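Anyone up for a design puzzle?
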């Protein structure tokens, strides 16, 4: 306790449910905070990595879930450095926007021509948009300073507020459409540029909240990267580095129980009941972190006999299909230009109900660092995002010929409907929930921020360090600290 001579003994054991980037980063930081004596069990019902996953096509692996990382995502950057991994540049080919009939916008490989085209079509709106995103990102960077000084937040709303006050929280409470309309952006610019970016990144419209809208727009910045060998490697390395025990099983329920420990004192613990294969087991934990979206379809965890009961979450996650196809793109679908002149690497789409894809883009394998321009007259690997699985007829509309196709279906991101309330991070005394953060924005870095925050929160609450939680005016207070 602050000021007392005897610090509290660390917990005996901690459970983390979910070995995605949220759960594994939490394991890493919990180990740093609580030291080597605590046992950390990480439960995973599927693959380590969760929504960071690859698919294999003809012996090469390609990202099928979370794929790009922003150059200013400092936790991901740090993990790669500290865990002995390396980065590869993500392909950044030319982008076109298709409205179902024609390409309404097409990038040019000459920077200056591109600028002139953008100004010609949309005035200075893309420059204003860039500045708007930069300001939001700048404020987001404050979280790294707070976390490096060990400060934690008990709710996502408080965390967002600490980054930029009422205006910043307001971004989360209003739709992107409302925010950008109020800022004077034109309908044409929103329909032809912003909506297509929301469709490729979150499979949704401009009705998403303004914060996730800005996160999504930041994916148009240069310098996006990925982890060589696959982003999921970060999760397995974090598990290793944290010396956690991976338990391949599905947690079914959590219940608070009283147990008499070796010290002879009755202590409150959580019983986790889990299934491995056809067997059911249970174990007791001092602290539990839930690092998976809490809903029936995705995690199906029951909280038994809590008083008051733990709220049921009904966060709806967007179904999304990633299809990877090795083939020769039928460029005549998008343009009448000669085949050998087609040089687009990514085609985004406007919000047209007749379109059956959100986007199609040229991709490299997880090992490739080079960035060749795709040529429509040759076979390449393309990644398509769509709301549902593609039929063979649909694939044959997009490709002159193809020799391999592989798909992965996801419940990918929360369906964003601002204004909404983020689920609490503290579900019960020593029971924490990370994925409420996704209601603000879903991205690898957001889960890493949530993992670090939950580890700090658990540590401070265990030790009674209340002054390290929900501190107001942190930005001002830390300005003078080195
Ligand atoms: C197609 C797609 C593309 C994306 N692209 C990007 C991108 O380019 N850049 C980016 O930053 N982000 C991207 N994202 C988002 C990013 O992947 C996620 O925000 C992030 O990976 C979420 O990590 P998480 O650990 O919070 O959750 P998850 O990765 O979902 O991890 C939760 C884990 O918990 C496990 N689990 C669930 N229930 C139980 C249970 N009862 N018992 C035991 N285990 C359980 C699950 O199997 C899962 O492995 C993308 C996501 C998708 C789907
Ligand atoms: C958290 C901050 C400040 C920035 C993160 C920016 C980022 C990388 C967001 C991810 C958005 C997202 C869910 C993209 C999905 S599609 C990615 C890519 N275009 C692809 O083709 O796979």
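Challenge accepted. My sequence:
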């Amino acid at each position: 306790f602050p000021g007392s001579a005897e610090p509290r003994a660390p917990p005996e054991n901690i459970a983390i449910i979910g070995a995605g980037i949220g759960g594994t980063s939490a394991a890493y930081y919990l180990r740093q905070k609580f030291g080597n004596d605590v046992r950390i069990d990480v439960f995973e019902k599927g693959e380590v990595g969760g929504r960071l996953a690859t698919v294999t096509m003809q012996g090469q692996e390609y990202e099928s879930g979370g794929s790009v990382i922003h150059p200013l995502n400092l936790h991901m950057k740090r993990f790669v450095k500290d865990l002995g991994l390396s980065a590869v540049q993500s392909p950044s080919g030319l982008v076109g926007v298709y409205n179902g009939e024609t390409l309404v916008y097409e990038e040019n490989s000459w920077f200056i021509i591109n600028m002139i085209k953008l100004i010609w079509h949309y005035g200075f709106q893309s420059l204003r948009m860039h500045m708007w995103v930069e300001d939001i990102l700048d404020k987001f960077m404050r979280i790294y300073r707070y976390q490096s000084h060990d400060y934690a937040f008990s709710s996502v709303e408080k965390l967002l507020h600490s980054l930029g006050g009422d205006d910043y929280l307001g971004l989360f409470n209003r739709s992107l459409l409302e925010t950008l309309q109020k800022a004077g952006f034109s309908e044409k610019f929103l329909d032809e540029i912003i909506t297509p970016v929301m469709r490729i990144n979150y499979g949704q419209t401009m009705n998403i909240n303004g914060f996730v809208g800005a996160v999504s727009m930041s994916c148009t910045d240069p310098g996006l990267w990925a982890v060589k060998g696959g982003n999921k490697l970060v999760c397995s390395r974090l598990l290793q580095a944290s010396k956690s025990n991976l338990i391949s099983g599905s947690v079914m329920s959590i219940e608070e129980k009283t147990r008499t420990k070796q010290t002879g004192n009755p202590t409150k613990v959580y019983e986790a009941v889990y299934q491995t294969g056809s067997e059911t087991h249970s174990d007791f934990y001092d602290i539990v972190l839930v690092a998976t979206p809490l809903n029936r379809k995705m995690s199906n965890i029951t909280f038994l006999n809590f008083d008051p009961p733990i709220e049921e979450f009904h966060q709806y996650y967007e179904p999304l299909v990633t299809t990877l196809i090795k083939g020769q793109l039928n460029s005549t679908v998008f343009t009448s230009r000669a085949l050998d002149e087609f040089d687009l690497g990514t085609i985004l789409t406007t919000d047209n109900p007749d379109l059956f894809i959100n986007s199609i883009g040229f991709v490299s394998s997880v090992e490739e660092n080079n960035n060749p321009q795709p040529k429509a007259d040759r076979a390449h690997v393309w990644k398509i995002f769509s709301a549902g699985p593609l039929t063979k007829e649909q694939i044959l509309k997009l490709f002159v010929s193809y020799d391999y196709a592989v798909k992965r279906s996801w419940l990918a991101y929360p369906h964003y409907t601002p204004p909404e309330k983020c689920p609490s991070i503290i579900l019960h005394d020593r029971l924490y929930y990370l994925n409420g953060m996704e209601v603000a924005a879903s991205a690898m870095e957001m889960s890493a921020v949530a993992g670090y925050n939950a580890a700090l929160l658990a540590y401070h609450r265990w030790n009674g360090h209340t002054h390290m939680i929900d501190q107001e005016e942190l930005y001002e207070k830390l300005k003078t600290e080195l």
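A detail worth pointing out: The longest strand covers residues 399-414.
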